[in-house]
């Protein structure tokens, strides 16, 4: 799989203007335009509503540019990447943004313009043509391109069906990413997982058509240590507690945690941030076979904790447990896990918000601030200690699927915390999927939480 490389167009003097106009600035804008353009916009009924787009006629029947509406503050509060929705409808060509926006708002819209150029065309005979954009003045183009490249990688990985994105292909993606940035990658596969004490990863993945594996990538030789752990369940049937067909339909995205940490790693390395990065991905398929792990099995994790399996469809926390236990054996200044872990998180906050858990108030504040600045909505959820007893079944140390259905995202997060050691830690329970087309976010795989984390790193790690 060849990754897409989102780029702003070169500083093209012939680029057409794309004017961004708020509703309360429309009259002033019309008055400043040539008379024929102002008359044209009035005659078409252009009102600068959010998402509106009007093309400006030029001499000889050509195109002189376009105008996109920014609406008002109330409309803007109900979404993000406001210009991207209009920009996606532009005719082919190169455009230069002319906007009253500044600072983080301008950077977010510039990112939205680049994200609007994403197309998943691996299985299409012909890719659609699209507009290109010049980097707006005042925007750090290198940073925005790195953010978009990370998001494109995440989307490509999630969107690829499991037939072409099993554990082997996910391993290939890790090694290819490492090669692009001079990082080091390695893998522990199959029965070697048992020999090297990753019993939960082996148990979950042993029935799959491809051998389970633990993937590792390291980069950087100085600075604070950041460890990212991503759930890489390349397809999830539910195992012997098999999912109904309607619930299995999107399970190619169950490696969305792995895809998101790889996208974040792409951005970190492209920006050459002064830190030491470690990425750990347990890559498995949760399949049905005579070798599948079973309900009521008791498994012993890498760190010695025993787990009673009360639902084989709660497998993500099992494979993450071994990876987190490995991470806890070395020093990390910040340890992050990301996973498409629970349906309970979707019930709580819907598909658009990434809930996260941490005991560290300062870290939570920085992640929230990073999410607000990066147009990456997140919400802190509680590690609620009184619920610890819900994950303690009595027959073993831990229960992977407490009965009753209450607080499912919280109990999963509490389960993972048992394996994270004493590091500064946060866990993200993401969805990884955009259920319907939205500005800069076509239906399909999507990253969540990565930009929030990236924005938090300077303060959290002292970069």
Automatic annotation (TrEMBL):
Pfam families to which the protein is assigned, alphabetical = Peptidase_M17, Peptidase_M17_N_1
Q: Which SUPFAM superfamilies match?
A: Zn-dependent exopeptidases (SSF53187)
Which keywords fit this entry according to its UniProt record? Aminopeptidase, Hydrolase, Manganese, Protease
**InterPro entries named among the record's database cross-references:** Leucine_aapep/pepB, Macro_dom-like, Peptidase_M17_C, Peptidase_M17_N_1
**An individual GO BP term:** proteolysis
Q: Which GO terms describe its cellular component?
A: cytoplasm
Q: Which positions fall inside the Cytosol aminopeptidase domain?
A: 311-318
One example of the protein's molecular function in GO is: metalloaminopeptidase activity
Q: Which family does it belong to?
A: Belongs to the peptidase M17 family.
Q: Which PANTHER family match?
A: LEUCINE AMINOPEPTIDASE-RELATED (PTHR11963), PEPTIDASE B (PTHR11963:SF20)
What's the protein called, per UniProt? Leucyl aminopeptidase
Organism, as annotated = Rhodovulum adriaticum
